[in-house]
Amino acid sequence: MSVHRRFIRQPLAEFFGTAVFVFFGTGGDCQVVLSTNKGVASSPKGDFLSVGFGWAIGLAMGAWISGGISGGHLNPAVTLAMAIWRGFSWKKVPGYIFSQVLGGIVGAGLVYGNYKQAIEIFEGGLKTRASAGLFATYALDYMSAATCFFTEFLGTAILVFTVMVLTDKKNNGKPPPGLLPLALFLVLLGLGIAFGMQTSFAFNPARDFGPRLLLTFAGYGKQLYNYRSQYWLWCPIMGPILGAQVAAAFYSLLLSGDKAEEDERQALEQEAAVVNVKSAALSAEQRV
């Protein structure tokens, strides 16, 4: 059992982390939107800021669950960026991405099962984009295809650029490992507030494609994939992947610390340690 556990532990951490991420996020979407129907609740339960908090809390909780085991990627765009720019093992990439998408399916499935009756009341027994948008992402009607792509590209680029900063071992300003999820919470909350309106801020292929597959199993049909032709592929999947690559490239090539800087930092730390030891020894001699 221990041999098999060693191989599945990291993908399982990505699965559970992503499932929790999507669980909180889609759960927040459902509560805010479904409660606007008088047949579901007496008054609305939240607003767009509540949606942002739901996704941000979900990301933080997912990162805390998986961070110490798998690194807490929770996002295929992040996994690919880490493989190309940070030396993450390519052997692990397929398992990570599969686990992230599967986690998205399960997290959305739990929420869908919990709110199924409310969704039926809200939709009047139909299955349309009104409730599909609680799980998968759709753009506002005025948005052009290029603007939709750019929004997802830009939002993911900012997210991954921040991840690169926060996880750079040569960055003296990075947070302690236990506080990284809190930083991710602030980043995603800020992105939701600044960029969330137009495309429902996927910024993560697994966050969109996993719930979209769940809706396929629930019987929503071709409408999930024929909306604006290939929107589901280019905006919530290719946009985040390409945005992540550009952000990782910019940080790695222009801002990431080099070996000389790292050697200088270590030398300064060693020098400070020697000074501290000498000061402690001198104080001991004076006391004697």
Automatic annotation (TrEMBL):
CDD domains named among the record's database cross-references: MIP
Gene Ontology molecular-function annotations: glycerol channel activity; water channel activity
GO cellular component terms, A-Z: plasma membrane
Membrane topology recorded in Swiss-Prot or TrEMBL: Multi-pass membrane protein
Subcellular location, record wording: Membrane
Membrane-crossing segments per the record: 12-34, 54-74, 95-115, 142-167, 179-203, 231-255
InterPro entries (UniProt xref): Aquaporin-like, MIP, MIP/Aquaporin, MIP_CS
Entry keyword Membrane: yes
UniProt keyword annotations, A-Z: Membrane, Repeat, Transmembrane, Transmembrane helix, Transport
Main localization (coarse): membrane
Top-rank lineage group of the source organism: Eukaryota
Recorded catalytic activity of this chain's protein: H2O(in) = H2O(out)
UniProt similarity note: Belongs to the MIP/aquaporin (TC 1.A.8) family.
PANTHER family found in the cross-reference section: AQUAPORIN OR AQUAGLYCEROPORIN RELATED, AQUAPORIN-9
Name the UniProt record assigns to this protein: Aquaporin-like protein
